[in-house]
């Protein structure tokens, strides 16, 4: 960047920040009630590797406070299917496509029969097959981890939107 362009870039950044502050822009996580609500969610996942990875990723994404008593419970169901893609001349798959569907419901701990919000999050990831068996296992495990991380981010955004529009009294 040239010496003349630096002051203009700094001035543009300053004007942009000033414009955002003047228009009343508030980040989603700055909304009162969003962060405390997310931190008090207990994540309940079924057995299975992808479900376990999803539970771990959600606890990280939500910033779960394990020392506090949970006010909400997030019940999760995970459906996972793997499809072979890109068959070679021998009929052996060269790539696999993993479809993971996550159904979730958020309920209050005091009233588990009342569903506060629910959602469905489909995630699709692909991975390559190799001739080496351990490399194939590692590729599948990596795909499960990527699917869980992606789903956790989507669920976090959905829950943050819920808490932003339904502040706790």
Please tag this protein with its features.
single chain; Double Stranded RNA Binding Domain; 4 helices; 169 residues; four-stranded mixed beta sheet; flat; alpha+beta
Question: Could you please describe the fold and organization of this structure?
Answer:
- With 169 residues, this protein is an alpha+beta fold.
- The chain has a single domain, classed as 2-Layer Sandwich (Double Stranded RNA Binding Domain).
- It is built from 4 helices and 4 strands, in the order H-H-E-H-E-E-E-H.
- It has a 4-stranded mixed beta sheet with strand order 1-2-3-4.
- Strand 1 (41-44), helix 3 (49-62) and strand 2 form a beta-alpha-beta unit.
- Helix 3 crosses helix 4 (133-165).
- The radius of gyration is 22 Å and the shape is flat.
Mean pLDDT: 83
What is the terminal-to-terminal distance? Answer: 51 Å
CATH homology superfamily: Lipoprotein like domain
Question: Structurally, how many domains make up the residues?
Answer: 1
């Amino acid at each position: 960047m040239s010496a003349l362009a630096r002051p203009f870039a700094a001035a543009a950044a300053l004007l942009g920040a000033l414009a955002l502050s003047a228009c009343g822009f508030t980040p989603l996580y700055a909304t009162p009630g969003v962060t405390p609500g997310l931190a008090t969610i207990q994540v309940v996942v079924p057995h299975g590797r992808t479900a376990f990875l999803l539970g771990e990723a959600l606890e990280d994404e939500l910033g779960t406070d394990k020392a506090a008593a949970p006010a909400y419970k997030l019940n999760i169901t995970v459906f996972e299917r793997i499809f072979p893609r890109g068959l070679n001349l021998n009929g052996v798959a060269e790539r696999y496509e993993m479809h993971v569907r996550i159904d979730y419901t958020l309920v209050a701990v005091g009233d588990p029969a009342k569903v506060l919000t629910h959602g469905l999050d489909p995630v699709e990831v692909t991975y390559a097959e190799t001739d080496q068996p351990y490399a194939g296992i590692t590729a599948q495990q990596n795909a499960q981890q990527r699917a869980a991380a992606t789903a956790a981010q989507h669920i976090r955004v959905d829950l943050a939107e819920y808490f932003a529009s339904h502040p706790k009294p």
